[in-house]
Design goal:
The chain is α+β, with helices and mostly antiparallel strands. It has 2 domains: 1-46, no CATH class; 49-169, Alpha-Beta Plaits (2-Layer Sandwich), CATH 3.30.70.100. Helix content is 37%, strand content 19%. The chain is built from 8 helices and 5 strands; from the N terminus they run H-H-H-H-E-E-H-E-E-H-H-H-E. Strands 1-3-4-2-5 form a 5-stranded antiparallel beta sheet. The two termini are 14 Å apart.
């Protein structure tokens, strides 16, 4: 399960647990998870990342809200900090706009400031379903602006990316996105 929480400041992130532990409603409704016994834990471990949004998309968006929607979370690892910044630059100057134009629905783009396998970035996309995802990526791959952007030597995947990982998800009944 992925939980995406938007914080308006580093202070908000740093004090989130403290605030939740002072919230009686949270403690009451979350008791089954918060007080789970060792022989039946609610989870194995929690992994947390703190990300900064890209300047090309500074806020969350909900481009697809149909009941059958899916999300694709993509994580790009880079071989160096400078290479990672180059990929972020590529998204900011044009790639996000190309995605929108070709039917790929961006939800967020974030540069990891903490977490594992750094340097890396994560972004989430939404679609009406897997068929819509395939059609959108097919349009993206042949888009003239994408071909021109990705042909620039400074944006060659071999130079700026060392791994790409994707995960597909369906929203829970209580999802706000």
């Amino acid at each position: 399960m992925y939980v995406l929480v938007r914080h308006t400041s580093p202070e908000s992130f740093a004090t989130a647990t403290e605030k939740l532990m002072a919230d009686e409603e949270f403690l009451s409704k979350g008791a089954a998870v918060l007080d789970a016994p060792p022989e039946r834990p609610a989870f194995t471990r929690i992994e947390t990342s703190f990300m900064r949004s890209f300047s090309g998309m500074p806020t969350l968006e909900i481009p697809v809200s149909t009941p059958g929607r899916i999300f694709e979370f993509r994580n790009y690892e880079s071989p160096s900090v400078l290479a990672g910044q180059k990929k972020i630059e590529m998204f900011n100057i044009e790639e996000i706009d190309i995605m929108r134009r070709t039917g790929i629905g961006p939800v967020f783009y974030g540069e990891h400031l903490t977490g594992s396998v750094m340097p890396n970035l994560t972004y989430a996309l939404s679609y009406d379903g897997m068929d819509a995802r395939k059609e959108a990526w097919d349009r993206f791959r042949v888009d003239a602006a994408w071909k021109e952007l990705s042909a620039k030597p400074e944006y060659a995947n071999a130079k700026i990316l060392s791994a790409i990982n994707s995960a597909y998800m369906k929203p829970t009944a209580f999802s706000q996105i």
